[in-house]
Specification:
26% of the residues lie in helices and 25% in strands. The protein is of the alpha/beta class.
């Protein structure tokens, strides 16, 4: 069993992320289906002690998002392959340090602890590794016993981590690994947290991402790498197609790549739509990826996914995870309410239409703000709460509700901002954040205090790109019509107070308009704590069907 320390290469490491309930108001585009060759444990191992002698096996994960008990699966699978004669390399394609209280409580450090315990050798950065800020990123990675690679994020002209690394196997195969991060981090992470960092992108006719790929692959070839594998947190979402920063685009535009191990879009795939050698496991250890290398031929001989359903766990790693889980449960396990309704949790709900989860959170924000009216510069009827649907990472089942449940819905430690904007800017916020309604887009506005219509039959009038963003300003307002604000007539020249997250106030996702406002302030109040307080104090610990069975109906979506 390999649970030994590795040399640390990264010089740094740097917040906003379950139960289907509501009938969709709209029909969203079905996710693209990719080939996914999945094998069982019994199909992989035939019982012979030397079955994988002469083989190097790469095990990989991606988008673990705080599912720390899953590390026991990959650790046990390492042992199984090693016992069958293989040399094993364990790697990850990003987004391990955010997504549940089990990792967000420690600002990502618990994820690093578990990856060390499971014996990881190499990882790249996902957008959520930056959620706690650049300083925390560095602190976390100082604790890493694995190499962290990232070729396309720079600070003061230098990559923040080593861009690549050649792994020399015991049999003499040189495997060249490189890491790349999605440029969408610029808008999927609080911009304040990544100030001073440069993310290569392909906007405005540039090919920075591809040029970076060509450069790093060329460097690995010069180091005589026999096989070149990218650990990339790029994804394959269609919404990323326009600027060409999907893993598919990278493979098609950079020569010399033998395999891409991908993350970000939570795809379950073993090849791209045209047979590209791109593999991704989904999310939260639903699967573990396997890449088999023939040492004699110095070539990839097989690759597939293994479902963790029914897999054994490494006992020591499982116990380490349980200690962390128990600690979090103690901290957040207090029961604060009882719910007799299920709250929406799926991306296809919270990112695509108004939900009862969005209603609960924005109700709480409005309640908090109006308790202290003296802090606001506008009348209560001009106060609106707006958060992006991507902030909501879970829902609630019927039964007891704990603080951990609320923190799981809102795991990013966001504070509530007050941002003052004109009505015309409010229109732009809504138009930009609904330019495309898809569960892969986190910008969809969950709101309180405003009634409006989204006309999805009309095209988004795309204007210039927002600065330092992968999103575009609307050249005109075509899809949004505001009916009323707190029962009053909406006026473009009125000043409105927008209650939102620090993420949105800093221009995260499609909310650049809020970043431009010079009239805003941070309340310093954590939104998950606001929601917990609202449930305990205002709702007296009762989440009822009368209030939350269905969304309040503030948003009308026209689809035909």
């Amino acid at each position: 069993m390999k649970r030994i320390g590795k040399i640390i290469v990264c010089s740094v490491l740097s917040a906003s992320m379950a139960f289907s309930l509501l009938s969709p108001v709209i029909v969203t585009k079905a996710a693209t289906e990719y080939k996914s060759d999945t094998k069982t444990h019994a199909q992989i191992f035939n019982g012979k002690a030397d079955q994988y002698s002469g083989k190097t096996v790469i095990l990989h994960s991606n988008d673990v998002h705080g599912q720390i008990d899953g590390y026991a699966y990959i650790a046990e699978l390492e042992d199984d392959f090693e016992e069958a004669g293989a040399e094993v390399i364990t790697v990850d394609a990003g987004d391990y340090s955010q997504g549940s209280p089990n990792v967000s409580y420690s600002k990502g450090a618990n994820a690093i602890t578990m990856m060390n315990a499971a014996g990881y050798e190499i990882a790249t950065l996902g957008n959520h590794e930056f959620d706690y800020g650049y300083s925390q990123l560095k602190k976390n990675m100082k604790k890493a016993k694995f190499k962290v690679l990232c070729a396309d994020v720079l600070k003061k002209g230098k990559t923040i981590c080593d861009p690549s690394y050649v792994y020399d196997t015991k049999s003499g195969v040189k495997i060249g690994f490189f890491g790349m991060e999605t440029p969408e981090t610029k808008t999927k992470t609080n911009p304040k947290q990544i100030k001073g960092l440069t993310f290569y992108n392909n906007t405005d006719g540039k090919t920075e991402l591809f040029d970076c790929g060509e450069k790093v692959v060329s460097s690995l070839k010069k180091k005589d790498a026999d096989i070149i594998i990218g650990l990339v947190h790029l994804g394959v979402d269609d919404e990323s197609m326009g600027d060409g920063h999907r893993s598919i685009d990278l493979y098609d535009n950079v020569t010399g790549i033998d395999m891409l191990i991908d993350g970000h879009s939570h795809s379950v795939m073993t090849e791209g739509p045209s047979g590209e050698p791109i593999q991704s496991t989904g999310t939260k250890f639903a699967n573990i990826g396997v890449v088999v290398i023939d040492d004699a031929k110095k070539q990839i001989s097989d690759h597939y996914l293994v479902s963790t359903d029914g897999l054994d766990k490494d006992e020591a790693v499982e116990q380490k995870a349980q200690k962390i889980i128990d600690k979090i449960d103690d901290a957040y396990g207090e029961i604060i309410a009882e719910s007799n309704v299920v709250f929406a949790s799926e991306k296809s709900e919270n990112r695509c239409y108004e939900t009862n989860t969005g209603n609960l959170v924005t109700d709480a924000m409005m309640w908090q703000a109006l308790k202290d009216k003296g802090s606001l510069k506008v009348a209560p009827e001009n106060v609106i709460a707006i958060i992006n649907g991507g902030t909501l990472r879970a829902g609630l089942n019927k039964g007891d509700v704990t603080k951990k449940d609320i923190q799981t819905i809102l795991p990013f430690g966001n504070t509530m901002y007050v941002v003052y904007v004109k009505g015309s800017s409010l229109l732009e916020v809504l138009e930009a954040s609904t330019f495309m309604i898809s569960d892969s887009m986190g910008g969809y506005p969950q709101t309180k205090g405003i009634k409006f219509t989204i006309d999805q039959t009309k095209e988004y009038d795309q204007g210039e790109p927002y600065p330092d963003s992968t999103y575009y300003k609307p050249a005109s307002i075509q899809r949004i019509k505001i009916k009323s604000v707190n029962g009053k007539k909406f006026k473009k020249n009125n000043t409105y107070a927008i209650l939102t997250t620090d993420f949105n106030a800093a221009g995260g996702d499609t909310y650049y308009v809020l970043k431009k406002s010079k009239n805003k302030f941070d309340t310093g109040l954590l939104i998950d704590e606001i929601v917990s307080d609202y449930i305990e104090t205002e709702l007296k610990g009762k989440l009822t069907a009368k209030k939350y069975k269905n969304p309040r109906g503030d948003v009308k979506q026209i689809t035909e």
